[in-house]
Design goal:
The complex is a heterodimer of chains A (140) and B (316). Chain A has 140 residues and is mainly α. Chain A has helices at 2-28, 31-54, 61-89, 91-94, 104-135. Chain A is built from five helices and no strands. Chain B has helices at residues 13-21, 41-74, 81-114, 224-235, 244-255, 282-286, 291-300, 304-313, and strands spanning 122-127, 132-137, 143-147, 149-153, 158-164, 169-171, 180-182, 188-192, 198-203, 216-222. In chain B, a hairpin with an 8-residue loop joins β6 (169-171) and β7 (180-182). Chain B has 316 residues and is an alpha+beta fold. The A-B interface holds A 97, 120, 124, 127-128, 131-132, 135-136, 138, 140 and B 81, 85, 93, 97, 100-101, 104-105, 108-109, 111-112, 115-117.
Chain lengths: 140, 316
C-alpha cells in the first residue's frame, strides 16, 4: 500500500511528461482539417460576395487567381503536415499499421496515423472545393 | 427420376409469364410527364446524367458483388496483410476519390448549359394555394396574365421568375428540365430551352398543402410564330360568350359573385385571388387539370359539388 503510494508521484510525473509530449501532436492532428475549413469558408464567402456585389463591374480573373494561389499554398501546408504525421506514424520503420497498445510510443504513432489520414481527407476536400472555381470560373 | 443433363432447363411457367410481361413496365417510361422523354436540351442533359449514373451504379453493383463472391467463394482463405492494405488504399481511397472527382467535374461542366441566360420571353410564375399564376412580360412593358397553363416558344430559352405567395412550392416540368423551388419573398430565376413542340405536364414538386397533388399545369411548346399570335390574342379582351349555354354561364358567373376572386379580361370580373382567364372561363371547364380547382375550393370551404352541377348545366 505504502509502496503504491510512493510509486504514484513517479507515475504521475512520467505520465505528465509523456502526455506533455503528445499534447502537441493532439493539436497538430486538427491543423489540416482546420485549413480545409478555412479554405471552404474563404472560397465560398469570397465568390458569393463577388457574384452578389461585383459581377457586373469587375471580371472574376483576379479573384480566381488569388483563390487558386491560396489553394496551392494551403495544399502545400496540408501536404507538409501530412508528411510530418506520416513520419510520426513510422509505419515503414515498425511495419505496424494499427497501434493498439497503450504505451507512450503507441500513442505517439497512433496520433501520427490519425493526423496523416486527416491530412489526406483534408487534401481531397480542398481539391474538391476548388474544382468549381477551375471548371466553371463564372457565377452562373 | 432421371433427367438428361444436356436438356435445357425450363423456367417455372409463372416466372416465364412474368418475364414476358415485364417489358410492359417500360410503357411507364413514356408520357407527357417523364424525365426520360425529353422535349428540350435541358431534359436531354439531365437524361444523360441519369444514364451515366445508372450505368455507373450497375457497374459498381456488379463489381462489389463480384468482389464479395471472390472473397467468400473463390478465395475464402485469409488474405495477406499486404493485399488487404492495398485493397483498402486502392478500393477505399483512390477509387472513390477519382470516381467522385470525375463525377464532380462532369456535373460542373454541364452546369453552365443548364443555367444559360435566356434569350426568349420572360415569364413570371407565382405559386398560389393551389394554382399557378402565370404572367408573360411583353416587349411594350405590359403583362398578360393566365393561370395553370404555360405556353413556350420552341427553339429559344425562356426565362422563368419563380415566386410564391404563402408556402414553398416547386416548379417542375420533367420533360423540359430540372425543378426549382419557389419561396415566398424571393424570386428564383431559371431558364428552359424547349425544342420539340407538344404538350407536356408540370407538377408542383414540393408538398404545399392538402391540394398539392392537384397543383399541376400544362406546358405547351409552340412554334415561335404561333406563340406570338397566341400571346397577342391572350392580351385582348375576352370573347363574348357564344350560344345560349355560354351566355347563361357568363351571366351566372357574374351574378354569383365569382368575379370577386376571378378575373375575365374585359368584363366586370376583376378579382385577383383565384385563377385568371383573360379569354373566357372555357379553359377551366375543359382543362384536364381542373381538379385542383375543386381541391382549392375544398381548402377554402367552398362547395365543389355546386360548382360541378352548374358546370353541367351552363358552359362556363
Amino acid at each position: 500500500m505504502s509502496s503504491n503510494h510512493h510509486d504514484r508521484p513517479s507515475h504521475s510525473r512520467q505520465d505528465e511528461h509523456e502526455f506533455g509530449e503528445e499534447r502537441e501532436s493532439l493539436w497538430r492532428i486538427a491543423f489540416a482539417p482546420t485549413i480545409w475549413a478555412f479554405h471552404f469558408a474563404i472560397s465560398y464567402a469570397a465568390v458569393s460576395v463577388y457574384c452578389f456585389k461585383f459581377e457586373p463591374v469587375a471580371s472574376m480573373g483576379v479573384l480566381r487567381a488569388g483563390l487558386i494561389a491560396m489553394t496551392l499554398a494551403m495544399l502545400a501546408a496540408i501536404a507538409w503536415i501530412g508528411w510530418r504525421a506520416y513520419l510520426r506514424w513510422d509505419v515503414r520503420g515498425t511495419g505496424e499499421f494499427s497501434n493498439p497498445e497503450g504505451s507512450a510510443e503507441d500513442r505517439h504513432q497512433f496520433l501520427g496515423h490519425a493526423g496523416f489520414l486527416l491530412a489526406v481527407v483534408s487534401f481531397i476536400g480542398v481539391v474538391y472545393d476548388t474544382l468549381p472555381l477551375i471548371v466553371l470560373g463564372t457565377c452562373r | 427420376m432421371t433427367r438428361d443433363p444436356r436438356a435445357p432447363r425450363s423456367l417455372p411457367p409463372g416466372l416465364s409469364r412474368l418475364l414476358l410481361a415485364s417489358p410492359l413496365l417500360l410503357a411507364a417510361c413514356e408520357g407527357r410527364q417523364s424525365v426520360l422523354v425529353d422535349g428540350g436540351a435541358d431534359a436531354r442533359i439531365l437524361n444523360d446524367l441519369f444514364v451515366v449514373m445508372l450505368i455507373g451504379a450497375v457497374v459498381l453493383w456488379f463489381g462489389m458483388n463480384g468482389l464479395f463472391y471472390w472473397a467468400t467463394r473463390r478465395s475464402p482463405a485469409p488474405h495477406s496483410q499486404k493485399l488487404a492494405n492495398w485493397l483498402v488504399i486502392l478500393g477505399g481511397i483512390a477509387f472513390p476519390t477519382v470516381t467522385l472527382g470525375a463525377l464532380l467535374v462532369y456535373g460542373l461542366t454541364i452546369m453552365p448549359d443548364l443555367r444559360a441566360t435566356g434569350d426568349g420571353p420572360v415569364i413570371r410564375v407565382t405559386g398560389e394555394q393551389w394554382w399557378w399564376r402565370v404572367e408573360y412580360e411583353r416587349d411594350d412593358g405590359s403583362t398578360v396574365t393566365t393561370a395553370n397553363e404555360i405556353r413556350l416558344p420552341a427553339g429559344v430559352r425562356s426565362t422563368f421568375l419563380l415566386d410564391s405567395k404563402k408556402v414553398i412550392h416547386s416548379f417542375w416540368v420533367p420533360s423540359l428540365g430540372g425543378k426549382m423551388d419557389m419561396f415566398p419573398g424571393r424570386v428564383n430565376e431559371m431558364t428552359l430551352g424547349p425544342e420539340r413542340p407538344g404538350i407536356y405536364r408540370g407538377q408542383c414538386a414540393e408538398f404545399c398543402g392538402e391540394s398539392h397533388a392537384w397543383m399541376a399545369f400544362e406546358a405547351e411548346v409552340m412554334e415561335p410564330d404561333a406563340f406570338a399570335a397566341w400571346l397577342d390574342a391572350e392580351a385582348a379582351d375576352a370573347a363574348a360568350p357564344q350560344g345560349e349555354a355560354a351566355r347563361r354561364g357568363a351571366a351566372l358567373f357574374l351574378a354569383q359573385g365569382c368575379g370577386a376572386c376571378h378575373a375575365v379580361r374585359g368584363t366586370p370580373a376583376v378579382g385577383r385571388v383565384g385563377p385568371i382567364s383573360p379569354m373566357s372561363l372555357a379553359p377551366f371547364a375543359r382543362r384536364r387539370a381542373a381538379g385542383h380547382l375543386y381541391g382549392g375550393f375544398r381548402q377554402v370551404g367552398r362547395q365543389p359539388r355546386r360548382v360541378e352541377a352548374r358546370r353541367r348545366d351552363a358552359r362556363l
